[in-house]
Amino acid sequence: MNELRAARSLTTLPVVTLGGDVVAEVKDTVFDTAAARVTGFTLSGRGLLSGSLKQSLPWTAVHSLGHDAVMIVDVGDLADTPVAVARRAAQQGRVLHARVLTEEGAEVGTVLDVVVEGGTSGRVVGFRIAAGRALARGSGRRRHRVYVPRGETLVVSGRTLVIPGDAIHYVADDLPAFAARVGAFHDGHEGQEGTRP
Amino acid sequence: MMLFSQARGLPVRTLTDAEEIGVLKALTVDAPAGVVTHVRVRRRHSRKESVLAWGALQAIGPDTVLVRSAAVPSEVPPHHELPGVRILTETGDGLGTVQDVVFEPETGRIEAIRTAHGDLPADRLLGLGDYALVVRAG
Question: Best interface-test mutation with A: which of B91, B128, B136 has the largest number of A CBs within 10 A?
Answer without folding.
Answer: B91
